[in-house]
Amino acid sequence: MLSCALVGQPLTTINLFLVFSSNIKQLFALSSQVEIPNIQKQRKHLAKLVLDMDSARTRYYQSNKSSGLSSNLQPTGAKADHLREEMEEAANRMEICRVSEYYFKCQ
């Protein structure tokens, strides 16, 4: 009787291991099909937003440079205000995307 219980025990452990292995495989398959493309899409979007922010910053600083003001004075006027707002909005969009990507990774 004791030998039957010992013989059945490793078989149960093997069955549990096989079930666990198949669950892990399904989880990785789901990750590779759904999560990884979403992360790649999110990173591509973030890279685009970083480029947008850099170009807005460059336009703002070029405007500042071409206005002939010294480096401590801020340019004034509608165009300078528009470029500054555009730069700030681009930075905000990039930060929102960065935070959402971090939140998405942590789930």
Automatic annotation (TrEMBL):
<keyword id="KW-0343">GTPase activation</keyword>
<protein>
    <submittedName>
        <fullName>Rho GTPase-activating protein 44</fullName>
    </submittedName>
</protein>
<feature type="compositionally biased region" description="Polar residues">
    <location>
        <begin position="63"/>
        <end position="75"/>
    </location>
</feature>
<dbReference type="InterPro" id="IPR047165">
    <property type="entry name" value="RHG17/44/SH3BP1-like"/>
</dbReference>
<feature type="domain" description="BAR">
    <location>
        <begin position="32"/>
        <end position="98"/>
    </location>
</feature>
<dbReference type="InterPro" id="IPR027267">
    <property type="entry name" value="AH/BAR_dom_sf"/>
</dbReference>
<feature type="region of interest" description="Disordered">
    <location>
        <begin position="63"/>
        <end position="82"/>
    </location>
</feature>
<dbReference type="Pfam" id="PF03114">
    <property type="entry name" value="BAR"/>
</dbReference>
<dbReference type="InterPro" id="IPR004148">
    <property type="entry name" value="BAR_dom"/>
</dbReference>
